């Protein structure tokens, strides 16, 4: 069986690595050295769970900071259960692991599908790749979705920058409405820099003033998960950002892209229904976080931050977020 995977990020590479020992797998990677604008946060347990080298971890965190007006709360993560990676390095290693498992990697750009052929444009030619299964792991702006006339993934635009004027040792989350907007603002350690961001451009400017830094933001879409996103159409499967599989409220995407890709690969290997299996595994969790996300947009946000001074609340939140 021939499987073509569009997208060489965590989702595409994980699916390729899992499926390559059993099928003829071709992975299409658009750019050689694309460093996705991402805070790089991932649950530490993913490294053991998916046999990913620990050397990719740039920062191991045992706590995070929540801030709201004059309240600052240190949230214990029950060990170094949150890690920060550098996305270009992390993604490249996952592609290397997929290649070692037997996947063929082609650098090129997906154009369209026609009669169970993926049309790929490389620097030198146009390829027509036959497939029995096509996996779209090509991000929130999925060109595969567009080619199949499927609705776009619901998304919001984040504004972010990497700066050296404000140093952090762990992840800081800012919940003031004028800084965090509908969701929150953040500052993550990023090797020798700090990755800061928020959703609206106005909130980003307020964040910079609050941190006393100057930065010109870039914009990037991130999925906002909703019920009933189409994740399979006939023999085409969507996974990761291309399926909207980013956890509401926390906006954690890397871990759930990897988990969802692993689940998809198992469904293909075991001939199971992928949408049903994904819903059985993740729907309740994502739905609950979607409800909490809605609450976070109300006045109750300040009370929630202050409530995290209580260890019981911290433990509950960390259990929901990190499973620890």
UniProtKB/TrEMBL annotation:
Gene3D superfamilies named among the record's database cross-references: FAD/NAD(P)-binding domain
MF-aspect GO terms: oxidoreductase activity
InterPro entries (alphabetical): FAD/NAD-bd_sf (IPR036188), FAD/NAD-binding_dom (IPR023753), Geranylgeranyl_reductase (IPR050407)
Alphabetized Pfam families for the sequence: Pyr_redox_2
Residue ranges annotated for the FAD/NAD(P)-binding domain, each copy included: 1-144
Protein name per its UniProtKB record: Geranylgeranyl hydrogenase
Record lineage: Bacteria, Pseudomonadati, Campylobacterota, Epsilonproteobacteria, Nautiliales
């Amino acid at each position: 069986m021939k499987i073509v995977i569009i997208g060489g990020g965590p989702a595409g590479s994980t699916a390729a690595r899992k499926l390559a020992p059993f099928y003829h797998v071709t992975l299409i990677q658009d750019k050689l050295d694309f460093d996705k604008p991402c805070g790089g946060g991932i649950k530490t347990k993913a490294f053991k769970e998916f046999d990913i080298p620990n050397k990719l971890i740039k920062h191991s965190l045992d706590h995070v900071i929540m801030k709201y007006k004059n309240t600052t709360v240190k949230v214990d993560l029950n060990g170094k259960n949150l890690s920060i990676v550098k996305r270009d390095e992390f993604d490249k290693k996952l592609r290397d692991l997929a290649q070692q498992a037997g996947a063929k990697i082609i650098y090129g750009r997906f154009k369209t599908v026609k009669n169970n052929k993926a049309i790929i444009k490389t620097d030198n030619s146009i390829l027509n790749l036959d497939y029995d299964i096509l996996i779209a792991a090509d991000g929130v702006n999925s060109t595969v979705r567009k080619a199949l006339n499927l609705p776009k993934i619901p998304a919001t635009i984040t504004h972010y920058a990497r700066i050296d004027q404000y140093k952090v040792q762990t992840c800081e989350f800012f919940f003031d409405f004028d800084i965090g907007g509908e969701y929150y603002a953040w500052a993550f350690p990023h090797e020798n820099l700090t990755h800061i961001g928020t959703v609206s451009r106005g909130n980003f400017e307020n964040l910079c003033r609050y941190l006393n830094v100057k930065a010109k933001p870039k914009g990037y879409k991130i999925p906002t998960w909703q019920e009933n996103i189409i994740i399979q159409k006939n023999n085409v499967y969507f996974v990761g950002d291309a399926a909207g599989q980013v956890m509401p409220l926390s906006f954690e995407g890397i871990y759930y892209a990897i988990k969802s890709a692993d689940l998809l690969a198992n469904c293909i290997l075991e001939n199971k229904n992928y949408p049903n299996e994904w819903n059985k595994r993740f729907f309740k969790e994502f739905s609950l976080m979607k409800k909490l996300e809605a609450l976070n947009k109300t006045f109750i946000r300040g009370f929630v931050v202050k409530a995290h001074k209580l260890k019981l609340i911290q433990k509950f939140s960390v259990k929901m977020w990190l499973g620890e």
